[in-house]
Amino acid sequence: MTKKNVLFSDANHGGLVLLEEYSKYTQNNLFFYDIYDKLTNDEKKSISSRLNVTFLSLDDILEDEDSFVKINPVHMPPVIGTDYTHHEFVSYLLAKMDVDFKLIQVTGVKGKTTVTSFLRDIFRNHNALVLTSDRLTYNDTTLVEHLSITPASIITAVNIARKENVLDKVEYAIFEVSLGVVPKGFIGVLTNILEDYPICRNASSASVAKASVFESQQVLCDYDCYKNFYADKANAVTLSYDDNDADIYAYDVEFGLDNTSFCMKYFNRNYRIKHFALSDFYVNNLMFAVSTALMADMSMEEILSNLSSSDDIIGRNSYRNIGNKILIEDINPGLNTTSIKKCIYNISKFSNDFMVIIGGDYGITCEEIDEDKLSNYLKSVDKERIVLCGSLGKSLLKKLAEEHIYFRDLGEAIHFCVNESDEKIVQVIYRSEYNSNINDLTKLTE
Q: Burial of 146 by CB count in 10 Å (0-12 exposed, 13-18 middle, 19+ buried)?
């Protein structure tokens, strides 16, 4: 860097992690912009003393903006310019940290956690450091729970692995990452862009941010996503559930509640896969994980062997039996209208004997749900099958013209559907962290 004033932004999304790591390698002047006013004055004083950093207001920065090298998250509102995104700066820091592993990253609007969790199982024999939205693991050992999936968490994960004396053993670092990937990684996976939501106060979009996946050495990309947004990119392997123009696709799919069997066409090879999968997008996620491992030169024999001992991923189309009822759980922060429609469509393939609980919380993800779009869709669904729940459900209740059953708590809604309705299948579609609702679910099986 030729400029000596280096400005980091956003204490909410990892800016402080990048600042602290960079401070180990530089004599440059350090500055920080806490755009969302997350930090107290006492916290700022402590950080300033420890890292020799100066906190600036927006007015301070704009007085001489060009004097700074500016490092911002990719989704930051365009109040100042950006010289390096957080994703790009993580790549710079990894070089400084002298790591020696193959970096596999998974991004997308939906499916990131599921694909990365499958990869954790598949790479269990390869000294893999794996970060998902629920935990950081090394092989079968959990190192820490509930890190964020901002790019800065990659730096945190590396430092934790070093503290645990396993970093030198890591062969693969497999990370779920939000809004794109760190450049120059070994494999970048883009699962989909089901809804191209705006970022940066409408100055950019998810599809623009996630284009960084094409800066990976190898790229695996959803076929529809590739056609719609990135057709000018030349280095992608494409994957589709059922479009045989893609490099990889599924055929001869036989769905079942316990196991689903399908064939996967992988270029000129064909593989039969049998695994828990209640929906087409679950099959898609399986294919993303299997194909990533094949791109890393793992044998299909080892892939399928490791997958055979993996469990379904709780809250991600998982299910449990309660008496003579089946409870299907889609409880995660990233649910949007498109994914909710797919959940209901997929359950209808098994049976018409179902109830659907729809709702959730606010403030759990940067991407809020389009309630008008969702309520318009729900008007097309038989209202007798729908139970609304939680803060989101209450808002939807106001938007829907017809009267619907509503419960404030998820546990109450599940109890009603399990004990008061005649339908055999209860589908929970709830925007929230799974762990925050585990008590409601556990009580049902006690």
A: exposed
DSSP assignments along 229-251, one per residue: H-TT--SEEEEESS-TTSSEEEE
**Axis-axis angle for helices 280-295, 337-350 (nearest 10):** 110
* Contact present, 129 and 151 (Cβ < 8 Å): no
Q: Please give the domain boundaries of the chain with CATH numbers for all domains.
A: 5-82 (3.40.50), 94-308 (3.40.1190.10), 316-445 (3.90.190.20)
Give, to the nearest 10 degrees, the angle between helix 410-419 and helix 438-445.
30
With a CB cutoff of 8 Å and minimum separation 6, the contacts of 397 are 388, 404, 406
Pair of tokens at residue 325: 């009822």
pLDDT tens-digit readout, 245-259: 999 999 999 988 788
CB-based burial label for 112 (10 Å; 0-12, 13-18, 19+): buried
- How many Å apart are CA 315 and CA 132, to the nearest integer? 14
* All residues at 6 or more sequence positions from 372 whose CB lies less than 8 Å from its CB, including other chains: 399
Reported as a single tens digit per residue, the pLDDT across 10-24 is: 999 999 999 999 999
How do residues 68-107 score in pLDDT, each as one tens digit? 999 999 999 999 999 999 999 999 999 999 999 999 999 9
Q: Which tokens belong to 89?
A: 């700066």
Structure tokens at 215: 């800066």
Say how far apart CA 174 and CA 152 lie, in whole Å: 14
DSSP for 207-220?
Answer: HHHGGGGGGSSEEE
Of 271, 323, 253, the closest CA to residue 262 belongs to: 253
Write down the pLDDT at residue 335.
83
- pLDDT band at residue 446, thresholds of 50, 70 and 90? very low
- 112 neighbors 130 (Cβ within 8 angstroms): no
Torsion of CA 88, 89, 91, 92, to 10 degrees: 130
Dist. CA 408–CA 142, nearest whole Å: 34
Please report the pLDDT score of residue 140 as a whole number: 85
Q: What is the mean pLDDT of residues 325-353?
A: 84
